[in-house]
Design goal:
Rossmann fold, five-stranded parallel beta sheet, alpha/beta, globular, about 180 residues, binds BIS(adenosine)-5'-pentaphosphate, single chain
């Protein structure tokens, strides 16, 4: 199986859920920029204070801040990894490519989790995280469509993209992902 994987998909597609399952069974490092940012917010660090309001609005935190987090984690890790929630725009994707070239660890596969907006909103409203109210969810979906969705074509052109239908049970989706990964 690939050792350097990226999960792409809209809010609520199940990136975090599926990434955790796959990493638990494979030993890959699960690197979720959303989780890392929420940990900074909880710890009340300067970085967390800077990120909190932006996350609460459903906007993207600054590229520099997120890149610093990813750089520090990947540079100090020797094994395989799964990126969840990063990159979120073309600038982050290009910075990631530069970093991975420096580290000699090219990305091997990108899994796109695909689901329509209506079940996404339903799932997120059922969770109730601080940024899971309907107005902010709709804004996160529009930020995804404008800034993150262009990465689909970017990775398709690089021959790295595999599409996975993200409806159904957690187990059914996990099985599709496992089939899709080389
Ligand atoms: P982030 O934490 O990345 O949130 P997100 O992309 O909005 O993704 P979610 O966590 O909402 O959804 P998910 O696809 O991971 O689904 P999950 O498995 O959780 O980002 C949050 C914020 O941080 C951003 O808005 C931004 O401000 C900032 N940020 C993060 N990364 C950044 C970056 N790189 N650059 C700039 N800013 C960044 O599942 C969702 C719910 O559905 C759960 O309740 C789950 O239990 C449920 N569920 C999962 N699968 C199923 C299923 N099959 N059936 C039913 N329910 C299911």
């Amino acid at each position: 199986m690939s050792q350097r994987i990226l999960f792409l998909g809209p809010p609520g597609a199940g990136k975090g859920t599926q990434a955790q399952l796959l990493c638990d069974s494979s030993g890959l490092l699960h690197l979720s920029t959303g989780d890392l940012l929420r940990a900074e917010v909880k710890a009340g660090t300067d970085l967390g204070l800077e990120a909190e309001a932006v996350m609460g609005r459903g906007e993207l935190v600054s590229d520099d801040l997120v890149l610093a987090i990813v750089r520090s984690r990947l540079s100090s890790h020797a094994g395989g990894w799964l990126l969840d929630g990063f990159p979120r725009n073309l600038a982050q994707a290009e910075a990631l490519e530069t970093l991975l070239a420096e580290l000699g660890q090219p990305l091997e596969q990108v899994v796109l989790l695909e689901l329509d907006d209506s079940p996404l909103v339903e799932r997120l409203l059922g969770r109730g995280r601080a940024d899971d109210n309907e107005t902010v969810i709709r804004h996160r979906l529009s930020v995804y469509a404008e800034q993150t969705a262009p990465l689909i074509e970017h990775y398709r052109q690089q021959g790295l993209l595999v599409n996975v239908e993200a409806s159904g049970t957690v187990e059914a989706i996990a099985s599709r992902i496992s089939t899709a990964l080389d």
